[in-house]
């Protein structure tokens, strides 16, 4: 509500809620108010920023409110602005006044790449921050990863151990300075310093960042401390150095991320469209997956895309001055969390350590996005995006606080309070005990930062997930939400779908625990926030060997062949890559129905088809490797597809690919090129979705389709399906600020808990 306030005798109290602290908001208000000749004050408050305005050049406050939205500092994010009439106090000037501590939901900014002003300073020999790698200002620099607790003051960050020098202190205290109240403010006199250590002996090597760059040029592997943790770094164009990183990380084929000095260098190796350029250069600086232009050996074998980022810390910019392109992959032992301190076992991974003495409070991996039809598709959401708040639709809001712990693989956790959800950074797979430590670390960090005392905890339905057991021990009400249903709810909440609206939710992934105890993963639901009905699913096939079948695509190929031809199906030349007796043992396993649970997984269907086409590895090193190879070879050269049959005899449609597999085998035998087969397979899935959507419209009057689950990281499938659905008049919702993978389960879990809490009592 906006009261009309006119004339000099009127005053207004304005409260601004959002990411407005620690981002230069108060000096911005100070300058704006003065330029419009307002008197009064601005201060940080528990919920954001509070402003008292009176006087002014023009009657009313509209010019101020408009400029507030239009000219706000780059790192700020305004959620709401409230204006109230206030008593006229005859202030003589406009001031920034001291904050009072509050117990609200204060948002802090994610970590932001060095701004152009700061980068210019470190390149200007006359500046006192010339070549200083920790230069930052209110518009840029570390935030989330250096905060220990709130309020966001220097003493509560990892800069607490660096008392400001007089020069820094005067910038910090001057409202017109770019560094006014920049908590991480530092300079060569008072701030953190880098040093190089020889791995193992920890001998100090002189020469700073220039020396580090020289060591990299000479083929050495360095661990480099950045913002959210250490990278392992080497010259990307030195195959032997790349090979060494692969060896220490125990990664034969998993793609390695690159850091390019600038867009020009990146453009030599990858195709960069307008949207890609924007994301590469954005202040959050994610790794962007780009179509390869020129392959670099050992970086992203067998894949069509390669991940590139631009320097984000000033330290990176200095390191890359004489190095065009480096590998910058997170420093961790296989599947363990990114290291944030040199005491976590770095010496075994590298030759030298380029470190510094500003501690990292919270680790955060680099975020990874690709661009699908002009919009981001998050592969991993971490540094640069956490902890942005997610507003919850009006009808779902509750005064209760909710904690959601996600699933188990690619986990995140989410907290809800006062109408907003904050989702953590990607925490990795919790079946690795070191990640469980990371999970607990982040849980207590988020609860401390946002002052969370949960009334309810939400987890997956899976009884044996570590998160489920953890929640059971918390002593508060514990709600469990089926995996794929939680998947569907996440984009609904993200896009502000109001309670009561029904959607067709399509959740396709590798595995989730089903309500019947089976392994689900090719699921269709009629759903709203409160309830769901399983509208359809892929017909179950055997998962011979259980978990092994999720890593060895040939097992799924055998399973689908058996499904399509019966138990005496003939073998195919493609199985020749395996040892003789292996396929026999697996066939027997299925015949006797031992170690062969049933699955409706879409991910496993991709594995089978990829293997039959002869492009899948015998053993996958990382999730979806076989599927990614199949996507990589698919082209848009044919509109044909395979026959997928819908069995509609019961209330739940069973979808069978038996005929499709027979047609694929026929195509393979007649010499149809694999790219055509891969394309026809993608087309078949897109058409299946349209058929199911048409049915949802006919039977349920549903016209909104949600596409989610790890399978929809497949850009070709996502773009194709979205286009077809829109052509048929459907609204399509898919995750844009979150990953479609299990990373967004915790967000969906919050949605379901809120629906139960906000439901009017009968
Ligand atoms: Zn800056
Ligand atoms: Zn200083
Ligand atoms: Fe999933």
Please give a structural write-up:
The protein is 30% helix and 21% strand. It is of the alpha/beta class and 762 residues long. It contains 21 helices and 32 strands. Strands 6, 7, 8, 9, 10, 11, 12, 13, 14, 15, 16 and 17 form a twelve-stranded mixed beta sheet that branches. A seven-stranded mixed beta sheet has the order 29-30-26-25-24-31-32, sandwiched between helices. A six-stranded mixed beta sheet has the order 18-21-20-19-22-23, sandwiched between helices. It has four domains: 11-96, Alpha-Beta Plaits; 194-369, DHBP synthase; 389-495 and 742-758, 2-Layer Sandwich (Nucleotidyltransferase, domain 5), CATH 3.30.420.360; 505-733, Nucleotidyltransferase, domain 5 (2-Layer Sandwich). Bound molecules: zinc ion (2 copies) and fe (iii) ion.
Q: Can you summarize this structure?
A:
The chain is an alpha/beta fold and 762 residues long. It is built from 21 helices and 32 strands.
Task: List the SSEs and their pairings.
Blueprint: E1 11-19, H1 25-35, E2 38-45, E3 48-55, H2 62-70, E4 77-86, E5 94-96, H3 116-123, H4 166-173, E6 194-198, E7 204-205, H5 208-217, E8 222-225, E9 230-235, H6 239-249, E10 258-260, H7 263-269, E11 270-271, H8 274-281, E12 287-292, E13 305-309, H9 314-319, E14 325-330, E15 352-356, E16 368-372, E17 375-380, E18 389-391, E19 402-404, E20 414-417, E21 420-423, H10 433-449, E22 456-460, H11 466-472, E23 478-481, H12 483-494, E24 503-513, E25 519-527, E26 532-538, E27 541-542, H13 547-551, H14 553-565, H15 580-591, E28 598-599, H16 602-612, H17 625-633, E29 645-647, E30 653-656, H18 658-669, H19 674-700, E31 704-708, H20 715-727, E32 731-733, H21 745-758
Parallel strand pairs: 2-5, 8-15, 10-13, 12-16, 19-22, 22-23, 24-31, 26-30, 31-32
Antiparallel strand pairs: 1-3, 1-4, 2-3, 6-7, 6-15, 8-9, 9-14, 10-14, 11-12, 12-13, 16-17, 18-21, 19-20, 20-21, 24-25, 25-26, 27-28, 29-30
Helix pairs in contact: 12-21, 14-15, 14-16, 14-18, 16-17, 19-20
Bound molecules: zinc ion (2 copies) and fe (iii) ion.
